[in-house]
Design brief:
The complex is a heterodimer of chains A (347) and B (216). Chain A has 347 residues and is an alpha+beta fold. Chain A is 22% helix and 15% strand. The radius of gyration of chain B is 16 Å and the shape is globular. Classes of the chains: A alpha+beta (347), B mainly beta (216).
Amino acid sequence: MSSTIPTKQELKSSKRQLATVIDLSKCMGCQTCTVACKNLWTQRPGTEHMRWANVATCPGKGYPREWESKGGGFDAEGRPQPGQLTTMVDCGDNFQFNHHEVLSAGNAQRKKLEPRSASGEAPTWGYNWDEDQGKGEWPNPYFFYMPRKCNHCSNAPCIDACSRNAIYKREDGIVVIDQDRCEGHRHCIEACPYSMVYFNPVSQKSEKCIDCFPRVEKGIAPACNRQCVGRTRAYGYLDDSESQVHKLVRVWKVALPLHPEFGTEPNVFYVPPMSPLAYDDDGRLTEAGRLPIEVLEGYFGPAVRQALATILEERDRRKRGEPSELMDLLISRRWHDRFAEFTGEPI
Amino acid sequence: MAKVKRVAATNQKLLEVDGAAWSGFDRVGIDLIPAPVTMAASVSGQMALSQNHGKVRRVEARLAHNGQSLSVRLSWQDAQRDDQIGDLDRFVDGAAVMFPLQGDANPFTMGDAQHPVNAWLWRADQPEPFDVIARGYSTSQRRPASSSQLEANALYRDGGWHLVFQRPLQPGNGEFTRFAPGEPARIAFAIWEGSNAERAGQKAISGAFVDLELEA
């Protein structure tokens, strides 16, 4: 019997690895990915607060609120680090509105539509509460959008954390939580340094992004990737040398994991955002960028410098009228090119 | 060694936490210790980091059988009643008693492949207890109370929980510990303090099994 209990290494291993690349220079924070995901997966009881796909403004408190300071992940020696749970409000709350009161006869001119937090109080935080605030002083404020979902990590800390052995990697690299084995102890939520596991208080089990595996099995890209109107996203197997994800991550090395120092080896990669140019004191555009490189290093580590240098170099090459494979990849004139073999139609 | 007193009371009377059937009973005081979670690092590295669990340090047990069923009445102090998951970071109070399925077993690991254990699990937010079978870390299975006709009845009063578990001495087919008048048995205890985020292996336990003898 004991030989049938899988080791964590077995639960973490996969034959291949699916990956997503997101070009942050093109993300406009429209939340289409968020809504595409919510419509598909989180309209069941107990999932109201969940946004498996989400977009927050950087710098900012993020989603769930202050996830970057909640711990989890591994230290440099690979030891698991203590983490914190998220609350309903951290996860964007589940606002209730007084529709009935406002829409009752005669009230429309007297009553305002007012949200109520799940706590029963007037909300003091919610999803995207600090949207577009960013940082920096006029005339050079800066921010960019950070679309996120489960990173389907190669060294997934949620798998290590689950005392039920309920979490495992599929052969395609997608990390899933077996809802039959999960007992809602929430060690996975503490362990995930990205706070991308959520607790369902109705089923009393933990849930997370499943990378739309029922679609993926039919050759259809995940909804967040496919529905992106900005063509910011690529999807495919990392070892598929023809795929955009392979070319951007492995060949051009311009797509980087978020917070690589967390030690989980994420499989969502970001093309770092190009900076808008700064104004000088006289209101004239300068050659300097507004987005401090140190801020980007804080998100993507030191490799962000070389990644941005490569993008700028290739952009200049293109400006000179020379061909650039990288620019062609990032432009993606045909959306099919972004999704390798996952170009099937969802309907 | 603790005696499981033979009484004439009906199952129904013994299920009453405050019932007269329980008056005049010897109480067995059991000291509890924080479960040694570092032993479970290979199944949950995160759980193994826990340092402050095991808040409840003593439980009082009264044990009775009436020839048909075994009843275990537990009382422990708990200043905060946690009987619902009010937010995503909240946990509920719980209690369990555990028996080797047959012969011996390691209570710290909840048995192993060759030595299973059977436990009765009560959670303050659930209408019914669970009948649990386990063969070591990560293997526990919660079965519905009806599978063994397990029952539980709990009452929170004066800063403490009072709980009765009751199950037939000889339940129907299945992997359930069986008891008989005049025979020995072994029991272990666990308490989860919800307000201290205790769940899974983060709990207070009695450690070694306590030897019992059911009065003939």
